[in-house]
Amino acid sequence: MRVIIGGGSGFIGQSLSQLLYRRGHKVTVVSRHPGESRITWDEVSKRGIPACDAVVNLAGENVLNPFKRWTPQFKDEVTSSRIETSRILALAISQSESPPRSWILVTGVGYYPPSRKQEYSEESPGGDADFLSRLVKDWEAAGQLPITDHNPKTQLVRIRTGVVLGRTGGALPSMLWPFRLFLGGPVGSGQQPFPWVHIEDLCRLLCQTIEQEGSGGGILNAVSPSSISDTNSDFTQALSKALSRPAVVPAPAFAIRALLGTDRAVMLLEGQRVSPKRTLQSGFTFLYPDLASALVDLVKT
Ligand SMILES: NC(=O)c1ccc[n+]([C@@H]2O[C@H](COP(=O)([O-])OP(=O)(O)OC[C@H]3O[C@@H](n4cnc5c(N)ncnc54)[C@H](OP(=O)(O)O)[C@@H]3O)[C@@H](O)[C@H]2O)c1
């Protein structure tokens, strides 16, 4: 199969590409920068996409980049890098002579309103709680395919992922060094839900969605089964155990707010209790269903 991946040069895209290559598929990345096995967003806008079996969008400015201040300009960049790229790919699919079987938009569980009590599955409402949930609503709407004669065979799948834990990118590498220096601890109260997924499980789920015929489209939550009850404190304890280091130095909420700004601090200081109900119903099995198994795998040398 040929798979086109928008933003495929990043943390999730590189892992996904490696898995797809290992399974005998071909990958073309859509990027802002030209290169081998790449096309640029400008080329897609002008000439459309090459014939393919699946399109995945992973493009997006890093929301938690601590080196970028949370200015209106940066917020616009965070929003447009997701919405414009999704719109460009949806339009290209709708205009393609041989449209792909699946169109997969990877968004986030930030769609669901932060809550310590409420439990969410794929059917739960959301999209209007805060900046992040409105972003996910608009991002998913931008991926909607315009109705044309060409695209009835393309199924849109929206994969809402939790915090992606991996060795080479995402949040985990920056969390490891305080622990290794005996400075690790919970973020804020530590009682906020912590929805997460191991990078290998996320890429396996994406692969299953690409390869499976007649998946039916719709929404899939990419979170481990234990995410329904895991808190930041559970994560901290599991990481402490995996690294054999104490976890006694908390990162206070005021410091997180000062560093990231209120909108972004919500992402660390609050969270959602999310279940992968429909993902499990699709027949997917998680290799890393709980924090202990995931973190032992990710911190081993
Ligand atoms: N990692 C997580 O824990 C997590 C959790 C929930 C949701 N997600 C979502 O999953 C997607 C992929 O995440 P990731 O961790 O792989 O991200 P990443 O490593 O930051 O990579 C994303 C890619 O997006 C492209 N990009 C960055 N800024 C852009 C901009 N301003 N305009 C257009 N393209 C831009 C870059 O590709 P080029 O430089 O080649 O253009 C980059 O390689 C993102 O949309 C993210 O919001 C991630």
TrEMBL record:
Domain DUF1731: 251-298
InterPro entries linked: DUF1731, Epimerase_deHydtase, NAD(P)-bd_dom_sf, SDR39U1
Domain NAD-dependent epimerase/dehydratase: 3-61
Cleaved signal peptide residues: none
SUPFAM superfamilies reported in the protein's UniProt record: NAD(P)-binding Rossmann-fold domains (SSF51735)
Family annotation (Pfam families): DUF1731 (PF08338), Epimerase (PF01370)
Name recorded for this polypeptide: Short chain dehydrogenase/reductase family 39U member 1
Natural source organism: Leptobrachium leishanense (Leishan spiny toad)
Lineage of origin: Eukaryota, Metazoa, Chordata, Craniata, Vertebrata
Underlying gene: SDR39U1
